[in-house]
Amino acid sequence: MAKIDSIEDVQALLAGQGYICSRALGVLVFLALRLGRPLFLEGEAGTGKTEIAKALATGLNRRLIRLQCYEGLDASSAVYEWNFPAQMVAIRTAEAAGGADRAALQEELFSREYLIERPLLEAMRPDKNGAPVLLIDELDRTDEPFEAFLLEALSDFQVTIPELGTIKAPETPIVVLTSNRTREVHDALKRRCLYHWVDYPDFDREIEILHARAPEAADALSREVVAFVQALRTEDLFKKPGVAETIDWAKCLLALDVINLSPEVIADTLGAVLKYQDDIQKLQGSEAKRILDQAKAALAPA
Questions:
Q1: Which residues 6+ apart lie within 8 Å of 291 measured at CB?
Q2: Closest CA to 242 of 196, 214, 273, 215
């Protein structure tokens, strides 16, 4: 496992996985690792919140366990459930054999053999490589009852299964929570965490990110792509493109052997950058050329 003794170590670890980390975020990741505190990341979709958990898991050689949140997610779906079909087969088999000991059968049915572990319980299991990275992704999609449950789970890192008893994590997992802020997450949960707003990067850092994730792209094309995307973010769009879209677009342009941006190339590939038809329609005709001219003017030497 990589040795983390400083903020610079964190930044180097993440950079080694293609994740270019600002110092502000590096400080909080360092503190989260050092203090064993969950890291709560908020920001627009596509700004790299999920990727930091993946980069940490790979860089630290830890298992990544992902809990993808959705509306209606409850504690049982996040922690465990019993394998009901397998239990029914066991019951039918015992009945067919005859003379089954009911107490022994019940004990067998509710043993770990029939337990299906979900992400929160998985994260509490011992691992030879150390505590896993637990990614609780898009927490804002859930509702308040699940938040309340999660608040308790993050406090003690233990769960109680009535048939098996209490299971406690031998080592606190590295927890990363993300939110796209479609709704506000309760303050009580945020107070348990170290908080960081993941914003769109400035031009220089986005260039660094693109070089790390699409190193085969020529510098001139990379600069045009980043300048155009950054200009797009100043427009009145339903969904502004994130860093993920910048990377995807650059890779699409490379696949098409594009050397420089042009209005025609932009029109052909807008679906890699914008994900809503209303936004795409706004860039039809002369709009794409206007934004491209604006981007190229920003790149011109003073």
A1: 228, 231, 232, 235, 283
A2: 273
Q: What is the mean pLDDT of residues 19-41?
A: 95
The Cβ of residue 210 has, within 10 Å, a number of other Cβ atoms equal to 26
Task: Say what the pTM is.
Answer: 0.88
- Cα 275 from Cα 92, distance rounded (Å): 51
- State both tokens at 173: 């997992």
Cβ-Cβ contacts under 8 Å for 126 (sequence gap 6 or more): 170, 171
Residue 98 has pLDDT above 80, yes or no: no
User: Does residue 266 carry a pLDDT above 90?
Assistant: yes
The count of C-alpha atoms lying within 13 angstroms of the C-alpha of 160, restricted to the half-sphere facing its C-beta, is 4
CA–CA gap between residue 62 and residue 57 (Å, rounded): 5
For the CA atoms of the chain, what is the radius of gyration?
Answer: 24
Q: Is the pLDDT of residue 101 over 80?
A: no
